[in-house]
Amino acid sequence: MSENIFEKNLQQFAEFQTNMTNSVMKIFEQFDLQKSITEMTTYQDKLTKGIKILMDMKPEDAASDLLEKEEVLRIGKMRLFHYKPIVTGKKVVKTPLLITYALVNRQYMMDIQPDRSVIKSFLEGGLDVYVIDWGYPTGEDMYMSMDDYINWYMDDCVNFIRKEKKVDKVNLLGVCQGGTFSTIYSALNPDKIKNLVTMVVPIDFSGNDALLFRWSKFMNIDSLVDAYGVVPGDIMNFAYLILKPLELTMNKYISMVDKMDDPEFMKNFMRMEKWVFDSPDQAGETLRQFIKDMYQGNKLIKNELVLGGKQVNLKNITMPLLCACAEYDHLVPLSASRPLLDAVGSTDTQFISFKTGHIGMYVSSQSQKTIAPQIVEWLSSRS
Question: Model pTM greater than 0.70?
Fold first, then answer.
């Protein structure tokens, strides 16, 4: 009986060996050696050309923020810039537009490259554009608060523009965290704002549709701020990168090789890389307040936020409101932005969304063809 079992096992092993041999043979039959050599040669050629392009590239070749502008106001590290109009024959909108960007990144994302510049589209549409550059906080700014940024910096910029242009009100466009600041400012100063535009702006922090919202709810922000005072931008940047680790830290570099022999692609790639890693340090007290009052306390949408001794009531926002969102936004989901429309006191509200991501709102072809023109049309009809 044991001999039968041995013979059976031997037969099964022989069948297994035959099947394995056949499988390997099929793999080799399907293997195209010439094709593989060609692909390897093409890859090596692209890599060699790409490295040469990078070595020959000068800083100005991949520069951003190229539109002509003038510094018109400086307070501390904050600077206010006014863009030179672009003459296109279109009627210039009388009410000037002030753009407020987030603290965690640089505002030149909106003028990232010559053929993909949201600000350029605004200027070509007849808007009179100003933008706030928050600058780079240092140790002396560790006690700067949201009150300082909103009731001091922003208010001085708005008042300067009102005086300079001889208008009672300005249009205000806020981006991401800068949009949260703009919403707060509009609620505190409705008499100074003609129209409010929010782009990918978090307002209701109660949800968990984005990983950043989940993390922030349990973040020990006190330990972080107490340890650093001014939180290094590299720490903030690393936190954003690991929200999508494969896509943002590996895949983009692997995919880059396919187009590495294209000089224009490499210039644009380096522009984006520069912006990604150009992360200002964060004033500790502002970061502490934003995490605690927004992500953890959700005070803004509940009208419980107090700034400069005044309650921020969203019902005070009675000016026209345009809320623009990205449907594939991994940082600010639609559920965090849309509630603003029901929370304000305005009767003229509009919600628009686009099939793009957070950054795609400014650098995608859609941003130039669709998003910016819609904002221009909306503001022009109300200014």
Answer: yes
